[in-house]
Write a structure and sequence with these properties.
Blueprint: E1 3-5, E2 11-17, E3 29-32, E4 55-58, H1 77-91, E5 96-101, H2 104-114, E6 119-125, H3 138-144, H4 152-162, H5 168-178, H6 188-194, H7 203-208, H8 215-225, E7 232-237, H9 246-252, E8 258-263, H10 270-273, H11 275-288
Parallel strand pairs: 3-4, 3-5, 5-6, 6-7, 7-8
Antiparallel strand pairs: 1-2, 2-4
Length: about 290
Amino acid sequence: MPHYRSYDGTELPYRVLGPEEPETGLPPLVCLAGGPARDADYLGGLGGLDAARQLIVPDSRGTGSAPAAEDPAAYAFPRLAEDLEALRAHLGLERFALLAHSAAAATAQAYAAGHPDRLSRLVLVCPGSRLQGELPDDARQIFESRAHEEWWPDASVAVQRLSETGDMDEVRDLLLRAAPLAYGSWDEPQRAHAATEGGQLNPVPRAGFWQSVDDRTREALLTALRDVTCPVLVITGDRDALSGMRAGELVAASFPDARLRPLHLAGHYPWIDDPDRFRTLVETFLHTGEAPLP
């Protein structure tokens, strides 16, 4: 894997997916994994986005092949945004398109706030809204609406027990039992994707993701987002029982030029539930800055 040197001298790895020299001439897309602090392997090729363009997928500190941070504060998402700026400089990109999933949307928003002139497009997939200071409860409503499905009783028990245990072996087992709530359906592609989560968890970086981010810092970031001029696409899934849909609305409202696109029958990983529709939506936006209603 190639590496880049970040602001503190740490060498951090990244993957380059897709064609070595895209015949289309399309610029690369930098992609941030969420979790927070989940190994980036779960992104895969993002529903085939890697077929025509390169995807640059960094391992954040303490995940994948990246070394653990000596200073735990380096796991906080504003600091991870500075790692991203070092990656941009290393790649020699004057401006670039950025895609971030789930918790990584906070890192992407911190980057946009600090370096608005560096982004040509920003895609936020199933973001949470903790940065916006609100935690809507519609994810729970989405979960409850699926109580008729076969997997739901066991998943419901697992969700309850997850809030009561700190044992990582048990957490991994419970996450797999609760996994169907994160997908639009529970078929073979979803089952295979969910089976990887237990081995991709990194508790220490996860715990540090929101450290040192007080209300003053959060509000300053939100104020700066009003000056982000690049087009922004926020994608949600109407079966996402992890982030819900209301969080995406709040995130989109934080930008002056954002469009919100909910995907029907998609969950927290829309490139797994409906790869063709996800890929078409993202590629159209990257090409034109517009996002037709799916």
